[in-house]
Design goal:
A two-stranded antiparallel ribbon has the order 1-2. It is mostly helical. About 70% of the residues lie in helices and about 5% in strands. α1 (about 1-35) runs antiparallel to α2. The chain has helices spanning about 1-35, 50-80, 85-95, 100-110, 110-120, 130, 135-145; strands at about 40, 45. It has one domain (about 1-120).
Length: about 160
């Protein structure tokens, strides 16, 4: 049983890693490109003369800042399925803040991700989308209702 649990946790982690690799690669490529084309000084690259290169470097840094939330979100999706994605992203964002590295991870695991994992139905038990996720079924019916009727005319008087 213990090797089975380790195998399952390995698949959860690899799910997160497979989604975070493109984010890290994109951030690294953008940052390296900006540094490669910026004029170098004794203190590093000088972006004062090129706001475009500074923007590219900032986008690369933003991609690196997204790495932990993306990793946590998709690990949570591996654990709990679709209901775990958003709580995982939020928990990863909180864990990425300087004030709460440990608290964010603990709150994420003990709260929404675990409840999403244990509250979902077993695979194959629900065939109708309305039974599996009532809100999603309601949203689908509501959106389809708009496609069958014309949009109202503008009531603003010019």
């Amino acid at each position: 049983m213990f090797p089975e649990i380790l195998r399952q946790h390995k698949s959860y982690l690899l799910t997160g890693v497979s989604y975070v690799v493109p984010v890290i690669a994109c951030g690294g490529i953008l940052t390296a490109t900006a540094i490669a084309f910026a004029p170098m000084t004794t203190r590093g690259p000088d972006f004062s003369g090129s706001p475009t290169l500074k923007l590219i470097a900032d986008v690369g840094a933003a991609a690196f800042a997204l790495a932990l939330p993306v990793l946590a979100g998709f690990i949570a999706q591996g654990v709990a399925g679709r209901p775990g994605l958003v709580p995982g992203l939020i928990g990863g964002f909180i864990a990425n803040q300087p004030f709460s590295v440990v608290v964010g991870g603990q709150a994420q695991e003990s709260g929404p991700v675990s409840s999403a994992r244990w509250s979902r139905p077993a695979r194959g038990t629900c065939r109708e989308p309305d039974q599996e996720a009532p809100v999603r079924g309601w949203c689908a019916r509501w959106c389809r209702s708009f496609s069958s009727r014309p949009f109202p005319a503008s009531s603003s008087a010019a």
